[in-house]
Amino acid sequence: MSDTAAVKLITAHVQDKALVAIAEKVLNNERITNAECLTLFEKGSLGFVGSLANYIRERLHGDKTYFNRNFHIEPTNVCVFSCNFCSYSKLYAHKEEGWELSTEQMLDIVKKYDGQPVTEVHIVGGVHPKMNLEYFADLLRKIKAHRPDLHIKGFTAVELDYMFRKAKMSNAEGMKYLHEAGLDSLPGGGAEIFAPEIREKICADKVNAEGWLAIHEAAHNLGMHSNATMLYGQIEKFEHRIDHMDRLRTLQDKTKGFNTFIPLKFRNMDNDMRDIKESSLVEDMRLYAIARIYMDNFPHLKAYWPMLGRQNAQLSLAFGVNDIDGTIDDTTKIYSMAGAEEQNPAMSTAELVQLIEQAKREPVERDTLYKEIRNYKKEPLADPMPAASLN
Ligand code: V47
Ligand code: SF4
Hints:
Elements: H1 3-11, H2 17-27, H3 34-43, H4 46-61, E1 64-68, E2 70-73, E3 78-79, E4 90-91, H5 103-112, E5 120-123, H6 133-146, E6 151-154, H7 157-166, H8 171-181, E7 185-186, H9 196-202, H10 209-221, E8 225-232, H11 238-255, E9 258-265, H12 281-294, E10 300-301, H13 305-308, H14 310-316, E11 323-326, H15 349-358, E12 362-366, E13 372-375
Parallel strand pairs: 1-11, 1-12, 2-5, 3-4, 5-6, 7-8, 8-9, 9-10
Antiparallel strand pairs: 12-13
Helix pairs in contact: 1-2, 3-11, 3-12, 4-12, 5-6, 6-8, 7-8, 7-10, 8-10, 10-11
The structure holds ligand V47 and iron/sulfur cluster.
């Protein structure tokens, strides 16, 4: 279909001229402005933004929907910071209520996967004052010595900022040191909402927007890739979401180092923001769609299924999402402790493949950097899940 035909189809019954103009831009592959993004948040129906986002998603990836085989290590939930939305951390003063894994215990987790075709370990946790740069460099070297092919995606910019400052290293020096020790890429956590008026209220004491972005830029400058998250559905307004995405889009123009944008839905169980109502499913899907439209230089949009739940993650595949993270494992506690849908977030490859097929998309296993490992449409599983098992 030509773009003109697509514009006609999507805007046939849309009365609002501003929305029609945005559709024309998007379908002609032009970037939308912040003001246009606000119009989408304020006036774009779910069907309208969903159609545009789906058009972009299919232009970029067709039906391909990526996942990977990974596992998580959470070294500790002891944290020097006190983000109000966090249901997971224990302040250092109460550290006996939390957990701290030794290097040996973390290596034992890695060894549990010996002989299994996992491609990534995701290491992320609280900011423990005793687990410093040298401690983690040693862990990275030991993981690489044991399993050199395992991609290590580790440490949020919050953890890295703390480690580098304590080690009195610049971002460039600290990042180079960890990269040489085995760190391959960075996850997207700790971004929350960049706008200072919101950050001060939800996570006042940790690295600010400029610091977060500088850490990712330092990684990109070394040729490393990273992800970016946004914690939405708490006290932020549309303007703050747009400001957040704008800062990421601007850095991406400069470095091209981000792989994936991951909106994270605020969950309200057992934290200091428990009085805030969680966003609705329609608002979640509208956000995914608008993010897909606005973040035109991010190749991938991920729905993190343990937080969203399996069925909502399936639904998101019609609203711009082309990645649903991985098989993970049951060690991911940051969401289950905040009231996420999935209390035990583990899914087998067969379950993930079926989840994607049920949404009539094409399951593709990828590595961290989106190199295709197996396309399950071309190479189906020998022993698929029974048809009704996920219904
Ligand atoms: O930064 C904490 C979020 C993040 C809550 O890069 C909460 O592939 C919702 O960033 N409700 C850490 N969210 C996890 C993270 C992540 C997860 C999966 C994949 C990747 C990736 C990164 O979890 C934190 C914070 O934004 N978070 N508490 C809560 N109550
Ligand atoms: Fe610590 Fe991260 Fe929780 Fe904030 S979100 S308190 S930095 S573990």
